[in-house]
Amino acid sequence: MIQIKILDFGSLNYDYVYGVEHMVAPGETISSLDMEIFCGGKGLNQAIAAARAGAEVFMAGMVGKDGQLFMDICKENGIDSSFIRQVPGKSGHAIIQLDQNGQNSILLYGGSNRQMTKEYVDEVLNNFEKGDLLLLQNEINLLSYIIDKAYEKGMRILLNPSPYDEKLAACDLTKVSVFLINEIEGEQMAGEKEPDKILDALTEKYPEAEIMLTLGSKGSVYCRMGERYKQDIYKVKAVDTTAAGDTFTGYFAASLLKGMPIEETLKKCAKASAVAVSRKGAADSIPREEEVDGYELL
Ligand code: RIB
Description:
Layout: E1 6-9, E2 13-19, E3 34-40, H1 42-52, E4 57-60, E5 62-63, H2 68-76, E6 85-86, E7 92-98, E8 104-109, H3 118-125, E9 133-136, H4 143-153, E10 156-159, E11 178-182, H5 183-190, H6 195-205, E12 210-214, E13 220-224, E14 227-231, H7 244-258, H8 262-277, H9 289-294
Parallel strand pairs: 1-4, 1-9, 2-7, 5-6, 9-10, 10-11, 11-12
Antiparallel strand pairs: 2-3, 7-8, 12-13, 13-14
Helix pairs in contact: 1-7, 3-4, 5-6, 7-8
């Protein structure tokens, strides 16, 4: 039997999380309440979520000379880190303000996440085959090249176009099999605000693609060939919303790998991200499958 694999080609960041009374306004200086450092990056968070959801996951990306911790955290989570390269210079990092309601604002420094080369991409993709899943976000360079090469191989491409920016315009998004987006990215991609209109517009543009749209406190909607499935959120006290979307995405990729029915997938993803929101940190907040199944939600 062919074993389908998940390759997550993405970012690895050190997250410097500053607790604040309110987000700093332009021209304002404030003191933070506390500061903690966590491992994060949308790539790493999603790889951890997929692995903690029970999938076999390979992580590819670049870290700086200060990046050994990322390899260690991959190992602790059963993620194959053999494709991660250590390069001169600094790893990527994020400056995160975290307010009293668990909301955040994030400033990214790309660092080694933006040092991918075509040779490196080819070398990694050579180890994967038709049908394998490729999980991507938008925090690394050469995204367009990675999409083209993976598509040529027949890999199934799952794209979380986050953060959404002009670099995505260079990518041929008709090659994407599954879009995982939140309502802000949906609006940026579709030019519409209403969830149904976002899905209509994206379905028209990418008729073959599956679209997983998360709507914050309003839940999520999955859309495939005109069929739509809705899921409410599980309510928890929000401590830190960082990586809630990454948890949803990683759990979704793992469910796809396992061939789980969509209704069950949506419930599991919603529950896993609710648990992540109830805890501090990015990668650290992501629950394991048994915790998700056993977690007592309000
Ligand atoms: O999605 C949350 C992540 O975004 C953080 O871990 C931070 O590193 C940024 O990549």
